[in-house]
Recover the amino acids of this structure.
């Protein structure tokens, strides 16, 4: 049995087909909730896990004869990418260590030609060129070099590991259609004029890389590095091959490098500001300009590696694209949304998962029902198991799916219980709605200290811990949405609710910071900031506050309205939404007239009645 990490990607789909053709029993290691359309119908075992979580790797590699480690993130964007660094470096080290400790006889790691130093033109690139973790070309190059060195370090400890360095991968089986070269080749098959750069690079068929990996597993020596290249070809020549195989009318237009550099800067800026996908960056241009005299002589001699002619690769790719039109450009945006990178996030072929805290009543309960009605499997979280059971039964009767997780979020063990249950279910997470919380009304000096601590634990500590636990899962899949139920008092601090206002200000600040931090990651963080809501909240507050009544009756909005706002946020992610919408002026009112409220608030407080 062999294990393939990253089996759902372009190269993974090609490799597993090569392995199955050889009669191998394949175990595909994929992310929870990851789209596996490229593996459907194949005789293999699917195991869900995350290479950033070592506890999920160990059982997956146990008993394997070979581990092929392909999982990673590719990026041509400038600047630091923490998720790519974690996945490529930390994740690869986790897989290599787990394979060594499990006694796996062989591991093949897929590095990249870009992990090697970039020698000047005229100097052939072969396996004598060292890995360069300080490569100035880009963050991707550095992470692949660091990961390669981490795998070699495990080889020094006894792991029989081999590293392969493919060049630019093209070819059939890119079911997601997200590879820049797949999108480019697809665009070139259409009639019309096409812009191109007169640069060169070495491109290799994904099927040949898959075959090279199998040969490396069989014949490669421990700690050896093998370059899997194909054919060095200019961009115009590659375009001519595509047009020859596609037929029809089309014309290529060469863009001077000087103009291309300016376009690349503008495209990169546009991508950073608006989260768009680009194929044209400084990194891409430098790659086409750099030394691409790459030799696979060692792989040919020691492994018997033989890449096919480029014409055959292009012909097969064009034919495959004709038979697999789903990721056409007008549908790429839809697929991006399916990965959580846009409105309407939904992955075909899997049930989406939502976790809703405070689900026993009020906003949480209504939101859970609305999510279940839209096809989500909902984990219902609250302290009152009886209430959750009734809600789960109601959702089931309406044709939905719900699971009860009775947990006290005021206790760290309760938070961990929620996370552990979702992980055990093995279906990932798409939406986390933090609705749990409570308040207290009256002079802060009258508020019991233990009540204040409990409020901070539930409203802030539990919320933050749940986010920090689930974020790695979301970032690992490149999709997800955290929605925090805040309040207008987070923007307009209210006397008589001082600690509650402070907890909601914390929620707003954390939401805003994470929203900015995760921009373009595919993961969204948003806040719903309602005014007074018609729920049990105020009755509970009154009981906790020695009978003090909160005079908000005429301002109350139904919980359904707030739940609808949650659904709108999932469909159209943004940082925050006020309920009702008119309350969006609240932050400006605080900025402009907060000084006035400072002076009259004590008069209003004297008018508040006590009841009971």
């Amino acid at each position: 049995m062999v294990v393939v990490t990253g089996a759902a990607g372009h190269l993974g789909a090609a490799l597993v087909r090569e392995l199955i053709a050889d009669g191998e029993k394949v175990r595909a290691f994929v992310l929870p909730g990851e789209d596996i359309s490229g593996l459907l119908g194949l005789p293999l075992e699917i195991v869900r896990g995350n290479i950033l979580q070592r506890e999920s790797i160990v059982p997956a590699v146990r008993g394997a004869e070979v581990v092929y480690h392909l999982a990673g993130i590719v990026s041509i964007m400038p600047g630091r990418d923490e998720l790519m660094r974690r996945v490529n470096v930390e994740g690869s080290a986790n897989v290599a260590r787990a394979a060594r400790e499990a006694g796996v006889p062989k591991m093949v790691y897929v590095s990249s030609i870009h992990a090697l130093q970039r020698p000047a033109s005229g100097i052939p690139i072969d396996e004598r060129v060292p890995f360069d973790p300080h490569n100035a070309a880009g963050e991707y190059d550095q992470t692949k070099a660091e990961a390669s060195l981490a795998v070699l370090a495990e080889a020094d400890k006894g792991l029989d590991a081999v590293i392969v360095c493919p060049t630019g991968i093209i070819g059939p089986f890119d079911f997601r259609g997200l590879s820049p070269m797949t999108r480019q080749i697809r665009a070139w098959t259409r009639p019309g004029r096409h812009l191109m750069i007169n640069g060169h690079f070495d491109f290799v068929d994904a099927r040949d890389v898959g075959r090279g990996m199998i040969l490396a597993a069989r014949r490669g020596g421990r700690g050896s590095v093998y370059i899997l290249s194909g054919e060095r070809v200019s961009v115009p020549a590659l375009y001519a091959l595509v047009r020859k195989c596609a037929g029809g009318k089309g014309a290529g237009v060469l863009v001077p490098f000087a103009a291309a550099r300016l376009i690349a800067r503008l495209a990169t800026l546009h991508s950073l500001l608006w989260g768009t996908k680009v194929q044209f960056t400084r990194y891409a241009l430098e790659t086409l300009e750099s030394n691409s005299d790459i030799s696979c002589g060692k792989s040919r001699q020691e492994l018997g590696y033989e890449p096919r002619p480029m014409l055959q690769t292009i012909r097969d790719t064009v034919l495959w694209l004709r038979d697999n039109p789903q990721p056409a450009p007008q549908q790429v945006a839809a697929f991006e949304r399916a990965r959580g990178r846009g409105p309407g996030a939904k992955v075909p072929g899997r049930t989406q998962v939502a976790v809703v805290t405070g689900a026993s009543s009020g906003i949480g309960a209504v939101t859970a029902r609305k999510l279940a009605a839209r096809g989500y499997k909902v984990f219902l979280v609250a302290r009152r198991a009886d209430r959750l059971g009734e809600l789960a039964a109601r959702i089931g009767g309406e044709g939905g799916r719900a699971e009860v997780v009775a947990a006290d979020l005021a206790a760290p063990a309760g938070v961990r219980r929620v996370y552990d249950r979702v992980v055990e279910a093995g279906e990932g997470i798409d939406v986390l709605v933090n609705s749990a919380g409570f308040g207290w009304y009256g002079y802060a000096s009258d508020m019991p200290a233990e009540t204040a601590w409990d409020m901070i634990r539930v409203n802030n500590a539990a919320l933050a811990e749940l986010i920090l636990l689930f974020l790695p899962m979301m970032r690992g899949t490149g999709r997800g949405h955290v929605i925090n139920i805040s309040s207008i008092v987070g923007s307009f601090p209210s006397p008589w609710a001082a600690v509650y206002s402070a907890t909601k200000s914390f929620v707003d600040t954390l939401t805003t910071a994470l929203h900015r931090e995760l921009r373009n990651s595919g993961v969204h963080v948003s806040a719903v900031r309602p005014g007074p809501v018609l729920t049990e909240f105020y009755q509970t507050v009154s009981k906790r506050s020695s009978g003090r009544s909160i005079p908000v009756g005429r301002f109350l909005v139904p919980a359904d309205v707030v739940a609808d706002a949650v659904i709108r946020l999932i469909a159209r992610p943004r940082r925050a939404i006020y309920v009702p919408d008119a309350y969006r002026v609240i932050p400006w009112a605080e900025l402009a007239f907060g000084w006035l409220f400072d002076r009259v608030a004590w008069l209003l407080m004297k008018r508040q009645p006590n009841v009971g």
About this structure: The radius of gyration is 28 Å. Confidence is low (pLDDT under 50) at residues 327-349, 607-612. The CA atoms of residues 132 and 432 lie 40 Å apart. The first strand starts at residue 2 and ends at 5.
